[in-house]
């Protein structure tokens, strides 16, 4: 039986999602911009795995719409990508949580690739061109930074919060 969400959990949830959204729109040098990790997606995936009682799909959709507005992408592009990603993570939660962190990281790689593929596909359908190989860098950088994000988020969580 899962424990009820505490006020601190909700605060951490909302603040981390807001911080992830802000960090996603921070200007990076052109050489690093293509390899930016998918921070909002990683944070949503973290919370979906760690706190299953929190709502996930509606925040994923809303953050996706905010990303579409802030990044100037076709309306719904990131919303669809985040919805599919979080649906996969929530559906396969029992699969991901039984593995150690390094195996869960490997198991999440297809989810990041699916998200990048959806962005690539929608951009192609709307005639937004970009280098094909650069499209897959976020999946790689997200996979490499997932263990770091997981570890930092575990340190930030309340010390008394155990499953």
Automatic annotation (TrEMBL):
It comes from the Bacteria. One of its GO terms (biological process) is regulation of cell shape. Its main location: membrane. It is a multi-pass membrane protein. The keyword Transferase does not apply. Keywords: Cell inner membrane, Cell membrane, Cell shape, Membrane, Transmembrane, Transmembrane helix. One of its GO terms (cellular component) is plasma membrane. Involved in formation of the rod shape of the cell. May also contribute to regulation of formation of penicillin-binding proteins. This is Rod shape-determining protein MreD. It comes from Solimonas aquatica.
